[in-house]
């Protein structure tokens, strides 16, 4: 299996795997929608976001890699200077809802407003129209992806359906987009908040997955949070993984929009899309 994949490389320039680092800037809104309101520590832990964002940007600058920041719209509006700083450093700025509400609990009209508010504020801050969206808590429904396609996005990162992008046609009449598969296994929250594991444990896990994906030509989409991986120790899981991936020399470390564009240019064949796309999501 892996031999045949190697014969026709999945990724540009002969890279054997792709690594997409994404950082979700939730601000106070993620935990506020998730935690018991009386749990003031857990809610206020996200106030570390600005410090963590700066530390992560410094780490990424050291490696010279481009990544994707998924910004909650209201957080971006409150601290536009950090959004601009990430944008100016060459990172993609994508959407992560307006206030981290669970989209599958909203009406269709509320979902559309949520997308539009976030789209507009990010475009106003960076001067660039966002092309990607990740739902808060990975809660979405069919309307979510119809709207994402309707406003012209090229990617979502919502459905953990494998180790490769999949072409989606929520509305067959519109241009397709891709789902870049997330995973709780690639979420720093699972390692450093749900469980208080060490950076070495997270690194070991991710390195082993990357090794397997590298033999198969896969894609690894990490989801990190500035208030988690931006902390001193957990940031070492990120630096170790980057050390490892960069040293391998054949892992394409790329922004989500670049991966989506590359994939769409090569995989928009209708038959393949019908076979792969999670069309009823
Ligand atoms: Zn989030």
Topology of this structure?
Elements: H1 2-7, E1 17-25, H2 28-32, H3 40-44, H4 49-63, E2 68-71, H5 73-78, H6 80-88, E3 92-95, H7 108-126, E4 132-133, H8 142-150, E5 155-156, E6 166-168, E7 177-179, H9 188-194, H10 199-216, E8 219-224, H11 234-248, E9 251-253, H12 256-266, H13 270-276
Parallel strand pairs: 1-2, 1-8, 1-9, 2-3, 4-5, 5-7
Antiparallel strand pairs: 6-7
Residues 24, 26, 30, 96, 100, 136 line the site of zinc ion.
Report a brief summary of the structure:
Helix content is 47%, strand content 13%. The protein is built from 13 helices and nine strands. Strands 1, 2, 3, 8 and 9 form a five-stranded parallel sheet that branches.
Structural notes for this entry:
With 281 residues, the protein is α/β, with parallel strands linked by helices. It is 47% helix and 13% strand. The chain is built from 13 helices and nine strands. Strands 1, 2, 3, 8 and 9 form a five-stranded parallel beta sheet that branches. A four-stranded mixed beta sheet has the order 4-5-7-6. Helix 7 runs parallel beside helix 8 (142-150). The relative contact order is 0.19. Mean pLDDT is 92; it is low at 1-8 and 270-281. It binds zinc ion. The site of zinc ion has 6 residues, from loops.
């Amino acid at each position: 299996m892996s031999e045949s994949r190697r014969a026709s490389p999945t990724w540009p320039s002969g890279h054997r795997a792709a690594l997409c680092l994404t950082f979700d800037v939730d601000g106070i809104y993620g935990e506020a929608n998730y935690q018991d309101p009386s749990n003031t520590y857990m809610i206020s832990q996200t106030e570390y976001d600005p410090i963590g964002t700066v530390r992560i940007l410094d780490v990424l600058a050291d490696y010279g890699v481009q990544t994707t920041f998924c910004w909650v719209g209201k957080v971006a509006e409150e601290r536009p200077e950090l959004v601009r700083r990430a944008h100016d450093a060459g990172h993609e700025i994508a959407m992560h809802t307006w206030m981290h509400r669970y989209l599958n609990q909203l009406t269709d009209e509320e979902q559309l407003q949520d997308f539009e508010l976030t789209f507009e504020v990010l475009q106003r801050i960076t001067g660039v129209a966002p092309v990607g969206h990740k739902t808060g808590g990975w809660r979405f429904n069919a309307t979510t992806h119809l709207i994402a396609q309707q406003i012209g996005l090229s990617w979502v990162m919502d459905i953990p359906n494998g180790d490769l992008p999949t072409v989606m046609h929520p509305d067959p009449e519109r241009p397709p987009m891709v789902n870049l598969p997330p995973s709780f296994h690639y979420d720093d929250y699972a390692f450093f908040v749900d469980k208080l594991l060490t950076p070495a444990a997270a690194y070991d896990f991710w390195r082993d997955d990357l090794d397997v994906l590298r033999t198969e030509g896969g894609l690894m989409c990490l989801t990190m949070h500035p208030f988690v991986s931006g902390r001193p120790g957990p940031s070492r899981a990120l630096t170790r993984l980057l050390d490892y991936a960069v040293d391998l020399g054949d892992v394409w470390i790329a922004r989500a929009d670049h991966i989506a564009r590359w994939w769409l240019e090569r995989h928009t064949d209708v038959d393949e899309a019908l076979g792969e796309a999670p069309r009823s999501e």
